[in-house]
Amino acid sequence: MRASTQLVCLLLLGLICSPAAASHWFRIPPHEEVARVARFIVHQCDWASLATISTHKPVVGQPFSNAFSISDGIQGLSSGVPYLYLTEMEISVQDLKVNPNASLSMTLAQTDYCRQQGFDPQSPLCARVILSGSVLPVNGSEARFAKQALFTRHLEMIDWPSGHGWFFAKFNITQVWILDYFGGIKTVSLDKYFHASPYRKYL
Ligand SMILES: *[C@@H]1O[C@H](CO)[C@@H](O)[C@H](O)[C@H]1NC(C)=O
Ligand SMILES: *[C@@H]1O[C@H](CO)[C@@H](O)[C@H](O)[C@H]1NC(C)=O
Ligand SMILES: *[C@@H]1O[C@H](CO)[C@@H](O)[C@H](O)[C@H]1NC(C)=O
């Protein structure tokens, strides 16, 4: 084994074994690899802000932003598709019944990253992603994937009251917007987004 390989192995072990680093052991990809950064943010964040078009008085027809737990896959296994666990008793889900079009945003300000780096949440260096699309219920094998993705990262969901009509849904992305550096917001094609890996290649 070469010395450099040994070093990488030691580093990996250290990262895996350190509880504090366990949830952050994948480092952010280089900022110019925007598709990878977008996938990284979506995978790291456990929740997102979901904006719907409100159907509720007195703000009918106006944007309405609300926090939701999300997961695009169990830790370390990212699909790029944010899954949600919803009930029609929820105010934003009632909006989605009338108009499923929505926007979902996530920022590394939700992780320790921006604070540790000293980046203000509004700094372009505190990377964030804004997804446009719609929220669609999922069923069959995709619902099974969503359940595993969500329940492993949001343990209390298992005990949420069964009478509330919970169902699995996905955010069906039509446009990816990413701000991860100076020079303004960028877009990433869906093809590039879904083919990118959020993880740094160590070996
Ligand atoms: C949702 O967005 C799509 C694409 O932008 C648009 O064609 C559709 O009319 C919108 N649906 C509603 C209910 O506004
Ligand atoms: C899943 O839902 C889609 C539409 O949302 C429907 O066409 C399909 O038949 C459903 N599949 C199952 C297994 O229920
Ligand atoms: C889901 O997103 C795809 C793009 O990825 C789009 O072509 C499709 O129309 C969307 N489906 C719905 C029901 O909005």
UniProtKB/TrEMBL annotation:
Membrane-spanning residues: none
Main localization, broad class: secreted
A GO cellular-component term linked to this record: extracellular space
Signal peptide: 1-22
Keywords: Glycoprotein, Secreted, Signal
Naturally occurring in which organism (per UniProt): Cynoglossus semilaevis
Pfam families reported for this sequence: CREG_beta-barrel (PF13883)
Localization annotation: Secreted
SUPFAM superfamilies in the record: FMN-binding split barrel
Listed name of the protein: Cellular repressor of E1A-stimulated genes 1
InterPro entries: CREG (IPR014631), CREG_beta-barrel (IPR055343), Split_barrel_FMN-bd (IPR012349)
Domain CREG-like beta-barrel stretches: 29-194
Family note: Belongs to the CREG family.
